[in-house]
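Retro notes - structure team

What went well: the batch runner handled both jobs without manual restarts.
What didn't: labels got mixed up in the shared folder, which is why I'm recording both outputs here explicitly, each with its sequence directly above its tokens.

Job 1
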Amino acid sequence: MIKQNPYRIDTSENSIRGPLVSLNILYKEMPETQGCEKCEEINGSEKTWCCRSQNPSMWYVEFLNVWEKAQNWNKEKKINLILRAIRNYLSNKLSKGCIFFDDGCTAYESRPFSCRMYGVVPKENWDKRWDNLKERQGDKFEAKQQCSLVSAKSGTAPTAKDEDEWFKHTVKCEKRIGITPDLIKSYDLPGGTYRTFHDHLLIELYSPEFLNKLTVVRMQNPSDADIDGFISVLREQLNQSM
């Protein structure tokens, strides 16, 4: 049986292995970074603020690369991941944090392009994204600049040309798994395949009907207490069904 996903592409082993290998070859060629080891010393209780307040987006092929490993986690760890995804989806806050952060990055070896570039994105590219984000978020804008502690271990920072070429490589991997040009062009827009971790995970696991129910709850602008109660019920259901 061919394994398919919500994008109606073949995600069986034979179909995705080549693109995933190509993606990981790129990751190995990208510069290693340093500086995170100084975070607690410099930031104290605000350590790891980047992972706790930011919610990375990635192509579907990058999500599959992470999800392939996460599917082998134990039951409790997977349930906690799913519930963090649902909590993020229900929250109307802009600063939600990454669902794969749990007292440390649980997907570090397979982390997506945006995480690997964070801290070393060339200024001209970063400024464009910063301005676009400001425009989208308006009065609610609360993003932070790149962490100044992070740098390339080699001492040579990536150029804008480097980042653009690496990003094009990830797009080619996205095309190779069968994602259509229209979905790729919908970059950062509803319906496209460049999404946050929690969106990818929920779309992968749940039916449109269940996601519609979650959307109804989110539209009611639930409080943290409301979300806690909802999550508690879901945890019990997941414990019984998984």
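Job 2
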Amino acid sequence: MEHRDRLWPGGYTFLYDDGLFRPSTDTFLLGAFPRLRRGMAVCELGAGTGLLSLLLLAREPELTVTGVELQPQACALFRRTAEENGLQGRMHCLEGDLRQGLLPPGRFRLAVANPPYFPPDAGAVAPDAARRTARAETDCTLAQLCAAAARALTWGGSFCLVFRAERMPELFACLKGCGMEPKRLRLVQNTAQAAPKLLLLEAKKGGRPGLAVLPPLLLRDPDGGESAELSRIYFRDKE
């Protein structure tokens, strides 16, 4: 079933479908993480229905974001989201396989991705193609994703992604193998006492070694309610 929602009352509208990619906290966390500058050219790898691209434009309206998405139905919703918000000149979707060099090489200052978290043989296999693609690396491996980001970025450009904390060593190895150096790391925890399950990472193409580890992002306050930072990430301060 198709749905329509807003980032905040009177804000941008986004479309999604239950059978494709539903909005997730992970996407909102990543949307708040990259350092953005006016006029920046951005690419989103595995763009889904365009929510992450829209979140970036909500923070910096002068971006140009180009998404690459394999599934035609998701790409169609991405384009409709751009049209409904009058962002056709800022938000574009290329339909196809990100491994096939659809993006012009060395053109983008920032690449972003909310990739599948699990290897193709990990756990139960989702029954439909959309959920299978979103959950596991059945169509694109982590190494292939990193290689695609490296090709698309300018020298010194950044690649930001959200990923499973337990796969951090593998992620770092893939990035370094593609000439990208991990530079800024933030772990995501449910509470201050909980072990992190997710990480937010920025890597730089051609960057020098040296990793800045930021304070953890806590999703819950000590009383169990939504943290003030998560509330801002969800634009509740605009309600």
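One thing worth noting from job 2: DSSP finds seven helices and eleven strands in the chain.
We'll revisit the folder naming next retro.
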